[in-house]
Predict the structure.
Amino acid sequence: MTPRVALVGAGGHGLSHRRTLQRLADEGRIAVAGLCDRQPFGPDPSAPLDGVPFFTDHTTLLATVHPDVVVICTPPHTHLPIALDVLAAGADLLLEKPPVTSSGEHRELAAAVESTGRLCQVGFQALGSAALAALIAADLAGPIGVFGAWWRPDTYYTRAPWAGRRLVDGRPVFDGALVNPFAHALMQALVIAGPAYRPALLELEAYRTRDIATDDTTFLRVTGADGRQITVGVTLASAVFLAGEIQVGGAALEYPTDRLRLPGSDLIAVPGRTGLLENLLDHRADPAVPLLAPLRRTALFTAMGEAIVRSAPPLEIAPKWLAPHPSGGGSVLPGIDELVRQVAATGELPSEIGVPWAGRPQLLRLS
Ligand SMILES: NC(=O)c1ccc[n+]([C@@H]2O[C@H](COP(=O)([O-])OP(=O)(O)OC[C@H]3O[C@@H](n4cnc5c(N)ncnc54)[C@H](O)[C@@H]3O)[C@@H](O)[C@H]2O)c1
């Protein structure tokens, strides 16, 4: 039987899921059962999947078209109730990252997955990277460093009602630099550290260069119970673009591009990413095919994200340290590209190396 797949949250990033559904339907691997979005879209012949049944409420979609698989791509703080309804309706789930926004919600969702016997794959697509698999296979020890330096104009923070916020209606939403755009890097670093990795100490320095509630420049040092450290420096306020790397044991994975340098080798492209929906379909057909991003694999990410979002508000970096972006649209922090690289390489936080705008790190607790 051809699996019937539906999508809840068809706008925003949901457009990329619509393209995937269209492609898989064209290949005959799925039938598209329906789309749902709170915003009713008018007919648009240029949009993927124009003309499939459309609903403005996911419960009506579930009751009407009875999908086998549902992709959820709505804002993070809306995920849990929709996911519970999908599981209760007997469908399997591809749930966008972050799966939920607290450890309590994570436990509730995991219990529902268990009791319904359904599947839940989480949208960390970088876990399907062949380059990541090659790095994990190399089994390298030692501290892990992560950095990235990107630019987002101020308009990025007007893209959605939850953009630039830490809370909506008193509930966490994940839009800080590390919990949203760089979430894939953090998730990959946790997978490299391994399933037994347990943080004993989390030290956070969170900054903002603009008028937002959340952080756009973030440093985190995690010390595991085994002493292994993961140190992260990421920013969305850099005029110099660094795609970003995860460094461990003399190796480096350029995580957005899947280029990998193993110890003693050159940086080479390791092409190949298994799509998460394809992997979920393969696993449904043959349980011997492992799920790449099952919910349980993301529990530590959720716990760390919750701790970051619930920490004290980010420190503002004063305008005197900033400069206009060469193309306009906002400010940049000159030299931040070198700093994030240095932090990842040394494991030292900005406050420990005399960065003038740095404040003291916060100690985070996981719940
Ligand atoms: N995997 C990735 O690389 C990646 C990239 C971008 C976004 N995301 C994730 O995708 C999700 C959506 O992000 P976005 O930026 O598209 O958000 P968004 O705010 O643009 O929302 C997406 C759509 O969901 C709809 N929606 C909101 N609440 C709904 C509800 N209750 N029922 C039905 N539809 C509803 C909105 O109308 C909108 O069209 C988030 O979890 C985000 O973190 C993942």
